[in-house]
């Protein structure tokens, strides 16, 4: 790409820069011309400056910028620096965001727009953390639009690489501030992570330091050293291993393009941290990655590039449970065959062999094509929670101020230890701590990182709850002032009547449905009520049925800080004892919640249905409703079943129940799946929130009633918004699972029960699941449905322009098109669907951010991630509380063996909805074990010497209690076979 620049002065005082780019794609050169406007009225945002007064003019939205940087910033005597501001470069933000967030250091910081853009391109999570810092009034971080300021914009030189150009823009910003604020007695320091950038800055007369050098100048430098990125912390040369070097970017890109290399996200086994798998589009089922060196420093969730190994190296998945704690000194599971040289021609033949091996019957169909990681496209690194390794501190050791290398053992056993350097090892022992990863060099067996902060003592309830949220990347901090400022000024006094009296023109488009007998049916104690229903018989004998959804978008306007926060959080997260809201509580539990007896704004879907629940017509309208009652599921069921109740509201609920059963039968007839998951409810003490009981959730007809009409509304809305916006409609799809996903389950069923599951279609799968019964065990069918659910693909949100219509299909629901519309209080997808539906019915125009396909792609990518994390966090919360319930108790329950390894089994306990690994050393004599891999059977001598045999699907009696895992410091359920 080349660029030429032309400038001209406009009458308004602006300078327009013309950039001419030549872009080459697929061998075709395209000339692109863009205009870039440069201003002289961008303020410096310093309270100490009296030169920028005229620059503080109202912006397009009417907001007036104001000075943020202190007139009396930190003054340092060391280095004769005095009062100063700090300019940070991109490396500092990416590698040291934790210390930038620390409340003891880094105030009055200037973030050039160039840095903000680079960070956004390289790490969106860190970009969001940086944006949060710029909204923190106490920290005083300002974004300076250096690329639009006359004095700080510099054109790109011919042949200058983009990184060098960006560094020059950042240096120019620091230089400008130094000159601009010289009269105020404030200097500006450039903090950089690039040695060359530092040298060039000093040459330009700008004071510049690395972050390690700068921290040494500060009063609390000793305490802050632990927060520094480890890149300069480890002075001793580590030489523990020699991982293969990653291929160059050019080789990776070329290999992916010509089909000799494969790209995908790696999943590390939860039972064997030295086994991973990667799903690619080229090969039917996941490629197997075995051994430390073949995994080649890949973390769970990384986007990696894989090279196939020769067929002679293909292996079966491991049948052993292997974790860091028990791995033997010889490196059990490590591979030493990574130096295999393969030609491109051989790779293509290997691909054909891999496809053949996974689609036809082989001599040993359990052998899988294996590969090795040769490159990392994108790291999944985040903040991790763990504890210091027990041997990090010698009990007799005297507290020292010198830093030492320590290992942090993470709560997730599938992840490796992280090496950090700290002076506070003795203080941190027994604490739950947060760490970040900085790098993983090819000569280090483990990644290097740095300490971020302490959460509290291990087993402290608050510390463990915060650890759970951090482990699943859930945003739980309070909403910022900018976000809360978007709420109605009337606060809790706001009501529909007052709004109507103000005479908003959109009210004429809103239908008054307050005469309908509407009610809500939700779980007990629900306060964020986002859906309600009604039904009534029409004079022609048909039924009017309505689903009414909280009109969240009336309060959450696109592009506002409130909307941006909702988009970032993506979903509310439900834990056992708390809810982490997507939107502020004022909206979720008050203004938007469809509480009974009060007027509320809603978005309504109205159908006319006949006796057989056929939809004759459908309409959509913004509405005003008044719910007559808020029922819990059980309350609604009792009222429906009570024959003495003959009021119109109850009659309407009976109509809903009758029609819902017919709707469900239609879905099942079409091939919808009736899957299952182990669902339990943990009861907690109302005062202390301590857990005291666990029970299996009971599903009533009213649960299904609500579900069927929510599904129906989502399908109707999906059709409408797709018709209106075929390229950007917010939809949800569920892909058809490859038959290979069910191979293991089918093999177990065939061998142990003489049964099988058909995967030809969702209908055949549903029918075959119905046939998977054991006359002697009524729970067996539920167990198989739970295991089948885990073989399915994950449902995902998407923008409609990214797939053909045939790929819109939701396999599990057996419908051709689907979206989420019915829970906008707790899901951001629904917020977007509301806006698109409002535009589709000409209520109000659609905001440009939802018309832009690129921006929509970013939205769906984030909400898919947030939705998945919320599910995992909810399950982890139940697991934690079940562990607490069993802390001082022991219970004997019935369980089912769902996995068998050569050195242990996994048992599911339906009563508590938990599954747990029982290792062979707990079962009995390790040396007595005999593992029959073909029949999924493990034989061993138990502690009493009795010979025992256990197989997959066996119903077993287990004793349940909880233990504190000495290795991870995590309390978990422990099962013992009786």
From TrEMBL:
It is found in: Cytoplasm; Nucleus, Nucleolus. Its main location: cytoplasm. The keyword Lyase does not apply. InterPro entries: Dis3_CSD2, NA-bd_OB-fold, PIN-like_dom_sf, PIN_dom, RNase_II/R, RNase_II/R_CS, RNR_Ribonuclease, Rrp44_CSD1. Residues 510-843 form the RNB domain. Belongs to the RNR ribonuclease family. This is Ribosomal RNA-processing protein 44. It comes from Pichia membranifaciens NRRL Y-2026.
